[in-house]
Amino acid sequence: MFLFLCLVGVSGVLGTVPEPTRTWQFDQLLDHFTYGEISALTFSQRIFEYNKLWNCSADGSVGPLFVYTGNEGPLESFYYNTGFMFDIAPQFNALIVFIEHRYYGQSLPFGEDSFEPQNLRFLSSIQATSDFAQVINYYKTHYNITQVVSFGGSYGGMLTAWMRLRYPQLVDVALAASAPLPMMAKTAKPKQKFFQIVTTDFGMANEKCPTIVRDGFTKLYSMYSKGSSAYADITSSFKLCSSFKKNQFDHLIGWVRNAMLMMAMVDYPYPAEFFGNLPGWPVEAACNILIDEMKMTNDPVKAIAAAAGLFYNGTDGQKKCFDIYDEFIECADITGCGTGPAAIAWDWQCCTEFQLAYPSNNVTDMFPPFEWNQDIVSKYCMKKYGVSPDPIRASREYWSADFKAASNIIFSNGLLDPWHAGGVLDDVNESVKSILIKDGAHHLDLRGHNKKDPESVIEARKKEVQLIKQWLQKSSREISFNVDSPVF
To answer: How is residue 370 annotated by DSSP?
Structure first.
């Protein structure tokens, strides 16, 4: 007897994300690849479910499962910022499920001790995709669901594509937004580098802005070289909560750089709170701050300080000063690991399986020269965790980003997003498609409908829905589902 209930579909307001109808804990295996005592250990994995759009068809069949493969953060961050799934679910009568990634949010295998070095060994993308497979299998066998569409953005988009590759019997279609798989697998050399695209974004807002940023960094280095006599001015210019010290310089540079690149990533056309309380088109807003500050003070250091402050202080401007160590954490990912416990988890993943070494050069980009290579990362990781990154793991485990034999995967990329250069930017075959979004930032297409959406993202979403419907229809003709057998 199946433990499911078909509901009458209820259409919501387009662009809004409702509260989950159910939050529950799945009893998940700690290690999917070990026999013996460890194989019996489990932890509680958090699931958000929304079932008000899920219902039965006239023939008694049920709608598909829409599943989001959780990212490197608490589940709420992605649930409430992925309105696209809710917008289109009524067209499919879909059941919506978000699965929290192990070691993030509340899905902590060892509770408060999860981030002890000896306990981090169970944190990997391979374990995570195996987690998702267990949850999807549960829904398919207990709810009589025959079709599954997987969604994910950024790292979650990588996981979603890998779900289709590793578990084609469980996932029929995958939408991987802003997923830099070729870059991660080291199978592609981007035409533009990460920081070059950030610079281009600022230049598109106003051609003067990259020059102001370059001048700001140049002057800041000059101030620092003068020694302690300039430290008070640095403290004042950046409104630091405590007096600037010599050993804080590199961290301060990283704090500014992080603000610039994050605003480029989430350069959405309307106010959003995904990575902070930011205005619409935050790159343009930051650029305006740069220009206005130069008009008032003619000081490029104060200009870059004020622009960075937009990211950390948001539009409400409640902070009277900045704690650069609380707001930015240095880690193995030069683009930042976030803050809080999630920063430790992502740092570990970048120290083991993901290679994120992208230097800046001050020639093709507006940032100070900064060398960040495999040797530097390895030394950092060995010192902190006693591990060293495996540079070919992603290639070895996930087809080396070669998708010629794959099917039913959509790779979407916004051209404002610095990560797009490392993504799949061309169609691979008839059922591995690339969708480029001219005015799109980091997985903008996964966000809910907004009246300020640019035409390019509206058209991208239409194409995504069309492909999902097309591939599900094809899949439904091929399904031979035995209700007396587990999907595995």
So the answer is: B
